[in-house]
Design a protein that fits this description.
This protein has 392 residues and is of the alpha/beta class. The chain contains 13 helices and 11 strands. It has helices spanning 26-41, 61-68, 86-99, 132-138, 148-163, 167-181, 196-201, 229-232, 269-282, 300-308, 317-322, 339-342, 349-360, and strands at 8-15, 50-54, 75-79, 105-112, 204-206, 209-210, 219-228, 240-248, 291-293, 372-376, 383-389. The strands form 2 sheets. The protein has a 9-stranded mixed beta sheet with strand order 3-2-4-7-1-8-11-10-9. A two-stranded antiparallel sheet has the order 5-6.
Amino acid sequence: MHSIVDKTAIAGIGATEFSKASGRSELQLALEACKAALDDAGISPHEVDGMVTFSMDTNPTIEVARGLGCKELSYFSLVDYGGGAAAGTVLHAAMAVATGAAETVLCYRAFNERSGKRFGRAMSVEGLAPDARSAHFGWYVPHGLVTPASWVAMLARRYMHVSGATSEDFGRVAVADRRHAATNPNAWFYEAPITLKDHQSSRWIAKPLHLLDCCQESDGGQAFVITSLERARDLVSKPAVIRSAAQGSGYDQHSMTSYYRADKDRFLPEMGVVGRQLWSDTGLGPKDIQTAIFYDHFTPFVLCQLEEFGFCERGDAKHFVRDGEIELGGSLPINTHGGQLGEAYIHGMNGIAEGVRQVRGTSVNQVDGVENVLVTAGTGVPTSALILGTDE
């Protein structure tokens, strides 16, 4: 993706409040978030000529464009695989801007995931068309693997067996996230930190996952404005340079149930595909990243991501979290907004916003000397990630 390296930027970020009952439609949430992002950049809706969202969103680009009062769209894209597409939206937008397909692109995500259709509820193949997707889940649902937590629990148990990690190690991720959320007024769990004892005593969801290993269900919206770096420099807010962005799918990839890879294989090789692209594109490496926003819908996958991106050797993430390296003051503070465990679960989009704030120097939990921030998208599915940097 060398054609996008350091050529585009996130020029505006905007969000609704994060809640459990928004009291308004998902389209209204999307419009509010997009308008806030445009205002943050100082751009009129008339200047928007591109839009990107991702699957499982109920807000078509033409509805959002009409609601905002946009004039014409020359580029629109829908990225697949749910939360795995979060950073992919930025990739698609950056490619559109870098190639001239569009000049000003909105990326957005909005839903009533708690008050509307409960996202974490058990699924069924009943009523699904007899297609490849229903056939895939048809192998799992009859055996009780019916929720995202149950799918991840299988991989988490195997990771514990291979790496020696414990439930307490998973809990340290939750404790760090909630500690960071506790000082973030926009977080659902503002002023509500937890202890490792709280984590261990929370009820089982699907062993080895406790309740506090699982992200929230949230109502809310988040949006970004992507344009050229040259143009972003002349806008209202400090730009976050898109160093690079990438998507990846691994060998023998399944959706949340990649149980059939060999023992020697890594747990999230699709994230490894993304990591290799990002390091190659930018010439950066783990030591060049000052803070990271890891997709934390379930805590075990944070440890796996630390290993996939080379912050730890395979099996060593447990030591990394035990030593407090992921907390403020550590060598790699993560999820300084509280993550999806502590702030809100907007399928990774709110994590991208925190990456922008870290680059701007405006985070409520600002890390000193930030030059580059790694942000990842959903794990267990074909995924994406990006690196944001300062404009210097």
